[in-house]
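Box 3.1 A note on notation
Throughout this textbook, protein chains are presented in two layers. The first layer is the amino acid sequence; the second is a C-alpha cell string describing backbone geometry. Keep the layers aligned when reading.
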Amino acid sequence: MNEIICPHCSKAFKIDEAGYADILKQVRNSEFERQLHERLELAEQDKRNAVELAQARVTNELQKAAASKDAEIQRLKATLDNIALTQKLAINEAVGAVEKQRDELKSGLARAELEKQLAEKSLKDKYETQIKDRDDAIERLRDMKARLSTKMVGETLEQHCETEFNRIRATAFPKAYFEKDNDSRTGSKGDYIFRDADVRDEE
C-alpha cells in the first residue's frame, strides 16, 4: 500500500498498487504532456528565434553584399565616366589640332589665292596700261598723219628754214633776207624769196 498526502488538505490516503500506478500514470501523463508541450513550445520558439536570427543574418549579409556591389558599381561607373571624359578630352584635343591645321591651310590657301589674284591683276593692269599707251600713241600718229597733209609739211619746212636762216643771217648774210612772198600783183606768188645785196647795195 502506498500513502499519498493531499496537497490541498494535507490528509493522507492509502492507495493500493494498482490505484497508485493509475494515479502515477495520470500524473506522469499529465506532467509529461505539460513538459512535452512546454518543450515543444520552447523548441518552436527556439526554432522561430533561430529562423529570425538566420533571416536577420542572411538579410544583413545580403545588405552587406548589396552595399559592396553598389560600391563596386559606383566605382566602376566612376572609372567608366573618367575613361569617357579622358577619351572625350583626347578626341577634342585631336580634333582641335586637326581643325587648327585645317584653318591654317585654308588661310594659307586663301592668302596664296589672293596673292595670285593680285599678281594677275597687277600684270593685267600693267599690260592694259601698255596697250592703252600704245593705242594712244597709234591714235596720235594717225591723227598727226591725217593732219600732216603736203601743205602742212611744206609750211613746217618753210618755218624751219626761216628760223635757221634768221639764226645765222647776222653773221653769214648781213644784207640778205629770206621771207615769204605775199605779193600777188604779178598773178602768182612764190613760196619764199631770198634776196641779197653786195657792198654797193646792188641786188
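The mean pLDDT is 83. The radius of gyration is 75 Å.
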